[in-house]
UniProtKB/TrEMBL annotation:
Classification via PANTHER family: F-BOX ONLY PROTEIN 21, SI:DKEY-261L7.2
Domain Protein SirB1 N-terminal: 53-220
UniProt-recorded name of the protein: Transglutaminase-like domain-containing protein
Organism: Streptomyces hirsutus
Origin superkingdom: Bacteria
Similarity section: Belongs to the UPF0162 family.
């Protein structure tokens, strides 16, 4: 199956305008932002398709039991509905597909990357009234239910209640949507982090993920997919363009975009952007700015 291709320029420009507007709103909506990413990626996703995706998330939330209770009860209800009855999960092969990073395709295929499956869990649970948040562990995105990592005490993660001195109720549960919503123990979470970083779990890794950070991470995954496929540098470019529309994003993305333009043969625009970014960098790193100016000169020389 061919990977999705972007819409026509006029439609793409309108989608980017809406993406920037939503990203700068007082309370950015995660599902809306992810669906706009999908529409920029896939020219077949029209307004009816975007609405249908939102309606499906609403419908899935309506199939959950009414406020099942504890964080573990929420986790069990979500796993039964999304992981078992609906079949949402991931496989290693999903990392090779651009569709695995597009919310509308994840809803259609019931497959995707950990972060997009987590978006499904987050949006369904939020609509149903669950205390839910995303957790961006290094190399693997999961979902928290209950108290956030900052307030849930010393235990790193997991569903086991602290029963010392009585049956104290659990305060937080982490689940892995990529594994069908499996509840993670503290040891599971530590193993995920160690596998990705070789380092122990730090409590700061359990902090709730801001919606804009989630979207930036989605776009980073899309760029990683495209970088492994030089023939799809168009995907790298639109993913960078959307990332630059986010109010908080790494400044060096401007440098990456300029270099990408040069690689795509747009030497003049790439050189202009290299020089513009060099002016920004010059105040803090003169040698780096000089290297960027050299790159700009080399890019212009390719026009001759």
């Amino acid at each position: 199956m061919l990977s999705p291709h972007p819409p026509l320029p006029e439609r793409s420009a309108e989608l980017r305008r809406r993406f920037a507007e939503e990203a700068r709103s007082e309370r950015p909506d995660l599902a809306t932002l992810c669906l706009l990413v999908g529409a920029v990626a896939d020219g077949t996703l029209d307004e009816a398709g975007v609405d249908a995706a939102q309606i499906e998330l609403d419908a899935l939330a309506g199939r959950l039991p009414y406020r099942p209770g504890t964080p573990h009860a929420w986790a069990s209800a979500l796993r039964e509905l999304l992981g078992e009855r609906c079949g949402f999960h991931g496989t290693p092969g999903d990392y090779r597909r651009l569709e695995s990073s597009l919310l509308h395709e994840v809803l259609r295929r019931r497959r995707g990357l950990p972060i997009l499956l987590s978006v499904v869990w987050l949006e369904v649970a939020r609509r149903a009234g669950a205390p839910v948040y995303g957790v961006g562990l290094p190399g693997h995105f999961v979902v928290g239910l209950g108290e956030t990592g900052a307030t849930a005490g010393a235990k790193p993660a997991g569903a086991e209640p602290d029963t010392r001195g009585g049956a104290a109720p659990e305060r937080r549960v982490l689940v892995d949507p990529f594994d069908g919503g499996r509840v993670l123990t503290g040891a599971d979470t530590e193993l995920l982090v160690a596998g990705a970083t070789g380092a122990p779990l730090d409590p700061s890794m359990l902090a709730p993920a801001d919606p804009l950070n989630v979207v930036l991470r989605v776009l980073n995954n899309i760029r990683a997919w495209a970088e492994a496929r030089p023939e799809r540098s168009d995907v790298s470019l639109w993913a960078l363009d959307l990332s630059l529309l986010l109010p908080s994003r790494p400044a060096e993305l401007r440098y990456e975009r300029a270099r990408l333009l040069v690689r795509r043969g747009d030497f003049l625009d790439g050189a202009d952007e290299l020089e513009a970014y060099a002016e920004v960098v010059a105040a803090v790193d003169g040698p780096a700015a000089d290297r960027m100016r050299d790159e700009a000169r080399a890019a212009r020389a390719l026009l001759n």
